[in-house]
Amino acid sequence: MxxxxxxxxxxxxxxxxxxEELRYFFAPGRVNLIGEHTDYNGGHVFPCALTLxxxxxxxxxxxxxxRMYSLNFDGDGVKEFDLFEIAYLESDGWANYPKGVFHxxxxxxxxxxxxxxxxxxxxxxxxxxxxxxxxxELVTAVCINEWHSFGVSNARxxxxxxxxxxxxxxVNCGIMDQFSIALGKEDHAxxxxxxxxxxxxSPFRQEGLAxxxxxxxxxxxxADSKYNERRSECQSALNDLREEIDLAHLCELTADEFAxxxxxxxxxxxxxxxxHVVTENERTIxxxxxxxxxxxxxxxxxxxxxxxxxxxDYEVTGFELDTLxxxxxxxxxxxGSRMTGAGFGGCTINIVKEKQLASFIxxxxxxxxxKTGIQASFYTAGIGGGARELTKEEV
Length: 395
Ligand code: GLA
Prior knowledge:
Helix content: 40-55%
Largest sheet: 6 strands, mixed
Bound molecules: alpha-D-galactopyranose
Number of strands: 13
Strand content: 15-25%
Number of helices: 11
């Protein structure tokens, strides 16, 4: 049964027969090619939207209730809340993400008086760092926006969803995930300047190469608190630099300028964090140029440098991600490999020669399993479009 049939059946079971009224929405997951932990430092990122994502089947109600059910958390049953009384509840688990989005629309002054019945279902592995949370936020945002004909742009939906995550959930994430999910484009990566939100699409379809996501299957622990800790370390580095130079964000500095002023940062750990951010921003801009010129070997070298900087300076990789990337670097079919997303577990992103794909998966997987005792999962990633309502033909 395909996803749409599963949603339709579950909707019928949970909320009754509203077949005629149902509308369907989709928001992808994302993978970042390069540019990690630069977004909240005013830098560049280079992510793409995946063909994997979160689907929602939705019907409007005539009262102010919202009822939600997820096929991915079917043990949790139906979660319910009132539009006039939206509060974060620990026991609501996953449902806090869509709730936060409803909350942001209302906070922004948009009138939502009638609620919805919604069934969600998705194929993004949870907790793998492929942004299943931003994906459920955006599928909800598009649903509200389309149904009420608010005409809010996708860029603004991304900002609303980011604010939901920052303020309602309490994770201080940057804009990369929500933006790439809202504005993804088939077969293209997005170079986004996170300071100005200017962006450009860059074609990513390389003859004979595959984009492979490898999941460490290591549960991400303490990721949210460590993420927030990294943000404050960057802020502290910025404050020290501001004692002598006029600076809005760390990423305004080139690597050379940073080297010249690094001594201003008092704490050694904060200095390392800032060095990662500044050099990563430069690597990202270089990688986009190399991609335009088809210089794939050079991109591979930048991906490796990115991983090592995230390991040594930013310290967000850990044994499993390091082992998986190192195993990939050994394989002759690998063009590039690095951790992707926030880190602390999750996935690596790999560019692999298609002809050697099977042997890449076999050999990388077996080295990883031997060293960690964990079996990795591999997905060949398709780059898809952004968050949207599905057309009649698609459902
Ligand atoms: C998470 C956050 C993003 C970004 C990445 C690291 O995915 O949600 O905003 O900071 O980590 O690059």
